[in-house]
Every structure is written in structure tokens, then in C-alpha cells.
């Protein structure tokens, strides 16, 4: 029943909005064009922030710190989870790609895949949000938002490891 309803929700919403616009005599096409122009302006304004994120990630990978972190954390967590921990605050799609690779390599029911799923599902793309959303509205002073986001990311990592160990390592008897 829900599948049938979900097929019609979007077309019904579009027809409702267009009908309401006709009743209120709103020039729909012109308003759409104005919105598209504003969207283009916003996308142009956030390009420097996105370039900064891409450069930072590239520099981090090239520096060799990632390999060092994998070696350092080997006794605490699976080393292949480190790239996910670092990438998730930067890019949701990149984190999903890493998660997909982990699930393919180790299997969806493995401890590392479950840990990765917890991390992906319970965290936010902090730096992406700061770059795109704050950049699009022109907020330049986001010191406290950055600090709060980093604290939330660290908390997410610690709690994800704890929850995964509690539920998935304890239940397997390891």
C-alpha cells in the first residue's frame, strides 16, 4: 500500500503547487527562473570552499599521516576504518564509497562493516556543512560551529567504537 502511495506523492505535490500558483496568479516560470539564477549565484560563491576541502584531503593523503594512523590504531580498531573516520566529516559521498568498499571486502555481517555502518549513520559531514551552507549565506565567523562539529565527530567515533564492541564483539564471544 505504501509503495503505491509513494509512486504518486511527488506528482501530486507538483500538481498541487502548480494549481495553487495558478489560483494565486503567480508567474511560475518566471519565479522558477529567478530561483535558478539565485541557485547559480550560490553555487559560484561556494566553489572556493569546496576547492579548499578537496585540496586539504589531497594534502592529507599525500602526507602519509593516514598510513601512520593505521599503524598506530591497529590495536584499538580495525585499521581499514581509519579512512572512513577521517573522510566522514569532509564528504558524505566519499564516506559512503569507503563504507561500500569495506562492506564488499569484509562482508556486510562483519564487525568492521557494522562499525562502519554505525559511524556513517550517526555522524555529519561537518566541514562540508560549514563550507557549503555557511559559505552560501556568507557566514565567515564559524569558530564555535567548527569546535562543536569537531567535538561531535570525536564523540561519534568514540561512541561508535564502544557501541560496536558492546553489541557485536560481546555477542560473538570475542
Q: Can you characterise this structure?
A:
- The chain starts with a helix and ends with a helix.
- It is built from eight helices and no strands.
- It is mainly alpha-helical.
- The protein has helices at 2-23, 28-63, 65-72, 82-87, 92-106, 111-121, 126-137, 143-172.
- The longest helix has 36 residues, at 28-63.
Give a quick set of tags describing it.
8 helices, single chain, 174 residues, mainly alpha, extended
What secondary-structure arrangement, pairings included, does this model have?
Elements (H helix, E strand, L loop, with lengths): L1 H22 L4 H36 L1 H8 L9 H6 L4 H15 L4 H11 L4 H12 L5 H30 L2
Q: Outline the biggest β-sheet.
A: none
In terms of DSSP E residues, the strand content is under 5%
Total number of beta strands: 0
| Residue-averaged pLDDT | 85
Structural class: mainly alpha
Assembly status: single chain
Low-confidence stretches: none
Order of helices and strands: HHHHHHHH
Helix share of residues?
over 70%
Instruction: Please state the overall shape, judged from the principal axes of the Cα atoms.
Output: extended
Outline of this structure?
The chain is built from eight helices and no strands. It has helices at about 1-25, 30-65, 65-70, 80-85, 90-105, 110-120, 125-135, 145-170.
Amino acid at each position: 500500500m505504501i509503495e503505491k502511495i509513494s509512486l504518486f506523492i511527488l506528482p501530486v505535490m507538483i500538481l498541487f503547487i502548480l494549481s495553487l500558483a495558478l489560483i494565486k496568479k503567480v508567474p511560475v516560470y518566471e519565479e522558477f527562473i529567478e530561483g535558478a539564477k539565485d541557485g547559480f549565484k550560490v553555487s559560484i560563491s561556494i566553489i572556493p570552499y569546496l576547492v579548499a576541502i578537496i585540496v586539504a584531503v589531497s594534502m592529507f593523503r599525500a602526507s602519509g599521516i593516514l598510513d601512520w594512523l593505521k599503524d598506530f590504531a591497529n590495536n584499538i580498531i580495525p585499521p581499514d576504518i581509519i579512512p572512513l573516520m577521517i573522510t566522514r566529516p569532509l564528504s558524505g559521498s566519499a564516506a559512503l564509497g569507503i563504507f561500500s568498499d569495506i562492506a564488499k571486502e569484509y562482508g556486510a555481517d562483519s564487525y568492521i562493516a557494522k562499525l562502519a555502518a554505525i559511524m556513517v549513520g550517526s555522524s555529519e559531514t561537518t566541514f562540508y556543512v560549514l563550507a557549503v551552507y555557511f559559505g552560501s549565506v556568507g557566514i565567515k565567523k564559524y569558530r564555535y560551529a567548527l569546535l562543536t562539529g569537531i567535538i561531535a565527530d570525536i564523540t561519534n567515533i568514540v561512541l561508535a567504537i564502544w557501541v560496536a564492541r558492546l553489541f557485536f564483539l560481546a555477542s560473538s564471544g570475542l
